[in-house]
Amino acid sequence: MKFIPIRNIKEDMVLARPIFSPDGRVLLNTGVVLETHYIKRLQNLGVPGVYVIDENVGEIHFPENISQRTRSEATYAVKSAFDSLRIGKTFDFEPIADSVKKIIDEVVSHPNVVANLSDVRSFDGYTYAHSVNVCVLSILLGLKQELNETRLYELAIGAILHDIGKIMVPVEIIHKPGPLTEDEMSVMKKHTNYGWQILRRHPHIPLASAHIAYQHHERPQGLGYPRQLTSDKISPLAKIVGVADAYDAMTSERIYRRGILPHEALKVMRRLRGVQFESEVVDLLCESVVKYPVGCMVRLNSQELGIVVDVNHADHSRPIVRLLYKADGTKMRSFVELDLAKEPYHFIVEVVR
Ligand SMILES: [Fe+2]
Q: Which of 15, 17, 199, 286 is such that its CA lies 20 to 30 A from the CA of 226?
């Protein structure tokens, strides 16, 4: 399996991962052979690229924290909430609350499976899929902090709705591919205040969740927005969502740029630990997130090239690697899998794209 940017997709390539519509439904499933009209549709939807089957690699099983069904339902619930608010209606909170409870249950039962290659999201669907990812990641971090059931619920609701204030920001700014001007940025920053106003007025939404929407862009040394709060004033739940939000944004594939790889995102966050990101949460993220996710191509110190097919939860830096190419660049005749946890003289030196 490999990721192919949209401009390089050719007819007859076979999808290795499903493509989702903005509301979280499967648009094209795994195994679909790409025909010209599919490719055109994907281009129109602003899909940044697709994962296609690479016969050289063989079959890979991608573990997930939550089921595809729960993910789709949650994405749809978030989209519906955004759509209702956009046309001035109040939103139906029940589907959001139901989805969040399901996500919590599933993450609690699969806390070990963390952050695999992100789903490919269409341009319009980015915000909704991102909201669900931030929710899943925040719950994982909340579990590491041993939050009780009520706090975990407040965290998850705030996480899934953290960007709800974006409905008040013009779509040209939200969808602008590339950096915003200073004026556009100041409009964008208001989504935190809007989110707080929307959520705090809602009779069924905990105030702690509304504070997450308000504070998720505040940063430990007062460099964030909208109020430049310092670490001692930022809610512990907003600190979690601030880190989860930044990590998922960095690692997501977008139409105008490739997402950075998990180990690179972790490196950036460790470097900005205590300044841009809450130190304790960054440490928990490094423990939780898989550095070399399933599907990632790696070079070993032996110069052999392989693909990660499973994760060792005891040691994230030593996954199970299926060797594909020998040190001299020739293809392996048959698949050999190396469990790096049991191979002290083998280690990963590079992630290859
Ligand atoms: Fe935000």
A: 286
> How confident is residue 117, by pLDDT bands cut at 50, 70 and 90?
very low
The 10 Å Cβ neighbour count of residue 345 is 8
Gyration radius of the chain's alpha carbons:
21
Which tens digits make up the pLDDT trace of 234-277? 999 999 999 999 999 898 877 666 778 888 899 999 999 999 99
Q: What is the DSSP letter of 33?
A: B
Give the Å distance between the CA of 167 and the centre of ligand 1.
11
Name the pTM for this structure: 0.86
Please answer whether residues 119 and 129 qualify as being in contact, where contact means their C-beta atoms are separated by less than 8 angstroms.
Answer: yes
Which of helix, strand or coil describes residue 273? strand
**CB half-sphere exposure, 300, CA atoms < 13 A:** 27
Report which of 268, 234, 239 is spatially closest to residue 251, judged by C-alpha positions: 268
Query: Are 217 and 189 in contact, with CB atoms under 8 Å apart?
Result: yes
Distance 253 CA to ligand 1 centre (A): 17
Structural domains in the chain, CATH included, are 2-52 (3.90.105.10), 68-288 (1.10.3210.10), 297-352 (no CATH)
Nearest residue to 231 (alpha-carbon basis) of 268, 190, 275: 275
Bridge partner residues of 3 (DSSP): 51
- Tell how far the Cα of 49 is from the centroid of ligand 1, in angstroms: 24
Find the helix or strand (DSSP H, E) in which 308 lies: strand 305-310
CA distance 186 to 163: 15
Across-strand partners of 299?
A: 305, 350
Instruction: Give me ligand 1 centre to Cα 106, in Å.
Output: 25
Q: What is the pLDDT of residues 148-164, one digit of tens each?
A: 999 999 999 999 999 99
257 burial class (0-12, 13-18, 19+ CB within 10 angstroms)? exposed
CA of 190 relative to ligand 1 center, distance in Å: 9
Alpha-carbon gap, residue 242 to 244, rounded angstroms: 6
The CA 191 to ligand 1 mean position distance, Å, reads: 7
Ranges 54-63, 64-73, 217-226, most confident: 217-226
Q: Is pLDDT of 206 > 80?
A: yes
